[in-house]
Structures are given as structure tokens and as C-alpha cells.
Amino acid sequence: MEEETYYSVRMRASRNAPHEQGGKHISGGERLITYSGIQEAVNGLLHKGFSHSRGTPDFMQIQLESVNEPIKTIRPLPITVHQTDTAEKGQAIARTLLQKAGIPPRMIEKAYQSIAEYGEARGAVLFDIRTGKRIDGRRERGVRVSRVDWPAHDFQKWAFEHNMPENSRIKEAHAIAAKVCAHPGIIAEVCWSDDPDYITGYVAAKKLGYQRITKMKNDGDECGCRIFFSDGITDTQSCIHFLEKQPVFIQREGNI
């Protein structure tokens, strides 16, 4: 990386109260950017927060921090798309993929049985595949994957090569999945959005890449899910620190 200061610009938006006071989560987002790109990044995050299908926020926080640690470069995951016309079929595909990634079937079932409980978390749930228990200890907060971005020029090339739309939702989801899967203690991730008008989700794993599933819930459903399946061996706190604090760029090839 060049010796230039990067900044983490993060946004969170909610309605009726801040998140920690029980407000309804509306939107969130982040950019890793140099000084010259801060204004554009803030404007983009403002637009995202105020144009969300979950509603109009009455609380928004935008936070800027300088990034002093070296930024790690991670390659994007290989991508596969599964077309399906019902949420039931989509969830069946997800379960099959999780099993292929190395998650024991009984642990997949145990995680799915707790999804209603996990739905209270604003971030992801860290799930131990040895004990079948949630191990992050974050309650409503969950684990928020942060300090990750995919430079626009590189993402555009990737999208063209893979015949994917150049939209920010795919960019953000794939960037997060790539960072999560880069940690040696994470076996797989399953995710679908809490946005009522976005029904696509994915399973991601080192062994499988990014497996996009076109329908994992029904239209209008505001219940989302994000579970990280841990091997149960890696130190939990070091894993969470990597996911939340390690600066990461997604990059196809070469230098940023």
C-alpha cells in the first residue's frame, strides 16, 4: 500500500431511537477511503441511509476514523448463482451448501432452530459448530464486520468479467463475505437481508466461494439472518477483532 492515510467512514441509521436504546435498524454502511474521497463517501452514505426500504430514519450517525494499521489485501471469492423461485427451495440449497462446506447436519439444524432468537442481533452471530452454541457474547449488538471496502475500479472489472450488475449491494455483500472467509477459524457464512424488498441471500465458504441464492425469503419479510460458523478452536476474541478491526481491501490482482 502507498504511504497515504486512509479513513474508515461508517454510517448507521435507525428509527424511534438509537440502536442501543432499542430503535429499529434502518441502514448501515462503510467506506475505506483517502482524504480526497471523504465527501463523496459521506454523501453516498447519507443517500443510502435516507433511501432505504425499511423506512426513513430519525437517527443517523456518521463516524470517521483514521486507519493506522496496514491494510490487508484479499482476493474476491469465486461466485456461483443459484436461481430459485421459492424461499423454501432457496433455504434447502443453503442447507446443502453449508453441509458441503463442512458443517455437520445436526449443527445446521441447531443454528436454524435459533434463527428467530438470533434475529434480535443487529450484527452477525458467531456459532460454534462443536458445541452448537452462540459464542460471540454480544447479545443484541452481534458482530459487525467493519473496515472493509472494494475499490470501485476493481469491482467494476470483476462485475464485467462475471456478468454481474455493478450495484453497491453486491459489492458490499461480497466484500464482507470475502473478509469473513479469510479468517482461518470461520468455516462458512449464511446470510439474507432484513430489507423487505431484497430476497436474495448467500452462503460463503473457503471451499465453495460465494454462492448467491436468488430467493431465500418472501417479499415484504423484514427478518434477516447472518451466521458465521466457527470451528470452535480459534480464540473467539481474536476472531472478532479481525472481523471488526482489521482493515481489508478486496482486490482482484496486483496492488491497490
From TrEMBL:
One of its GO terms (biological process) is biotin biosynthetic process. Keywords: ATP-binding, Biotin biosynthesis, Ligase, Magnesium, Nucleotide-binding. Its EC number is 6.2.1.14. Its cofactor is Mg(2+). Pathway: Metabolic intermediate metabolism; pimeloyl-CoA biosynthesis; pimeloyl-CoA from pimelate: step 1/1. It catalyses: heptanedioate + ATP + CoA = 6-carboxyhexanoyl-CoA + AMP + diphosphate. The keyword Lipoprotein does not apply. InterPro entries: BioW. One of its GO terms (molecular function) is 6-carboxyhexanoate-CoA ligase activity. HAMAP family: BioW. Catalyzes the transformation of pimelate into pimeloyl-CoA with concomitant hydrolysis of ATP to AMP. NCBIfam families: bioW, PRK01322.1. Homodimer. Belongs to the BioW family. This is 6-carboxyhexanoate--CoA ligase. It comes from Bacillus siamensis. The gene is bioW.
